């Protein structure tokens, strides 16, 4: 690089530098994508809690996941009758965000990796 | 006690001193100090113990945010409850307005209080669902009444201020 700059090819050298840094970015992004692919099988589970009200739990499911009332009620009843319900599954980052929101509403929620 | 929907919120009127005192105790009831059971319930783990890294990151980064969220809700409710202050010797009934814009904070603080009291007293599912329990005769009975009274209030807030349905415990 130094030799090329001394011979008056500074512009060319700069161009090569820029290209080199441009090439580096997609490599990092590709690595992140493959990590996300590995993270796909995570699920958000809500566990039964005899204190939380049914109507409150239904409202939380509607708010956090955007589910229609009927679907939110189905999940709420599953929690109530079977002790737990899988509310969502997908990439880890989003699942973590959902669990954080559910804890903000004081529901018993956990993140589990799908076997 | 009367509960009435107003344009700007929910008005609880004709509150006798006993119920007014129970409402005043909401902020204190949210406290998890000196109760590992309450602390464990309010700040429950985000995953099973095998996920050690996830649990420790959660404790470091997420728990402080949750603490802040819960504290803000409790402070909002405490400020609204100042309406009940006055001449402490007076046994006159009081009125409380829960502003519609504070509905979320009230739901959150009431839930904190209910969960915390239930964990502290280790109430069973049977006790929590016993609608025919005999009148208050002990501190434990009073705590159970408190949990149910706060739940009753939550139902009203959900229905009247947030347009949601009603139902028993999940």
Tell me what you see in this structure:
The complex is a heterodimer of chains A (115) and B (170). In chain A, 63% of the residues lie in helices and 16% in strands. Chain A starts with a helix and ends with a strand. The longest helix of chain A is centred in the first third of the chain and has 29 residues, at 10-38. Chain A has 115 residues and is an alpha+beta fold. In chain A, strands 2-1-3 form a 3-stranded antiparallel beta sheet. The model of chain A is unreliable at 1-31 (pLDDT under 50). Chain B is mainly α and 170 residues long. Chain B has one domain (2-161). Chain B has helices at residues 17-24, 26-29, 36-42, 52-81, 103-121, 125-128, 139-161, and strands at 2-6, 9-15, 94-99. In chain B, β1 (2-6) and β2 form a beta hairpin. Chain A binds chain B through residues 48-59, 76, 79-80, 96, 99-100, 103-106, 108-112, and chain B through 42-48, 51, 54, 62, 65-66, 69, 107-108, 111-112, 114-115, 118, 123, 125, 128-129, 147, 151, 154-155, 158-159, 162, 164-170.
The biggest sheet of chain A amounts to: 3 strands, antiparallel
SS element count, helices of chain B:
7
Rounded to the nearest angstrom, the radius of gyration of chain A is 25 Å
Q: What are the secondary-structure elements of chain A, in order, as H or E?
A: HHEHHEHE
Mean pLDDT of chain B: 89
How many domains of chain A? The number is 2
Taking strands numbered 1, 2, ... along the chain, how are they ordered across the largest sheet of chain B?
A: 1-2-3
Quote the distance from N terminus to C terminus of chain B.
27 Å
Computed over alpha carbons, the radius of gyration of chain B is 17 Å
Largest interface: A-B, 27 and 38 residues
Shape of chain B: globular
* Total domain modules of chain B: 1
Per the CATH scheme, the topology name of the largest domain in chain A is Ribosomal Protein L30, Chain: A
Structural class of chain A: alpha+beta
Summarize the amount of helix of chain A as a percent range.
55-70%
Structural class of chain B: mainly alpha
């Amino acid at each position: 690089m130094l030799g090329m700059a001394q011979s008056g090819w500074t512009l060319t050298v700069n161009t090569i530098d820029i290209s080199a840094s441009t090439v580096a970015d997609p490599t990092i992004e590709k690595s992140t994508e493959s990590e996300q692919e590995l993270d796909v099988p995570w699920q958000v589970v809500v566990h039964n809690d005899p204190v939380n009200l049914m109507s409150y739990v239904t409202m939380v499911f509607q708010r956090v996941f955007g589910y229609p009332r009927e679907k939110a009620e189905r999940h709420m009843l599953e929690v109530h009758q079977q002790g737990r319900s899988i509310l969502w599954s997908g990439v880890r980052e989003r699942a973590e965000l959902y669990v954080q929101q559910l804890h903000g509403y004081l529901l018993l929620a956990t993140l589990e990796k799908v076997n | 006690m009367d509960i009435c929907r107003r344009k700007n919120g929910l008005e609880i009127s004709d509150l006798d001193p006993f119920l007014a005192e129970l409402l005043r105790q909401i902020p204190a009831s949210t406290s998890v100090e000196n109760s590992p059971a309450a602390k464990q319930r309010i700040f429950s783990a985000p995953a099973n113990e095998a996920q050690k890294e996830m649990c420790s990151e959660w404790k470091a980064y997420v728990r402080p945010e949750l603490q802040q969220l819960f504290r803000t809700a409790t402070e909002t409710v405490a400020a609204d409850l100042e309406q009940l202050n006055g001449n402490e010797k007076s046994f006159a009934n009081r009125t409380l307005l829960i502003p519609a814009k504070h509905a979320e904070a009230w739901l959150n603080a009431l839930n904190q209080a209910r969960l915390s009291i239930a964990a502290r007293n280790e109430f069973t599912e049977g006790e929590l669902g016993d609608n025919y329990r005999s009148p208050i005769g002990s501190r434990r009975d009073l705590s159970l009444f408190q949990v149910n009274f706060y739940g009753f209030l939550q139902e009203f807030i959900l229905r009247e201020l947030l347009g949601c349905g009603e139902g028993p415990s999940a």
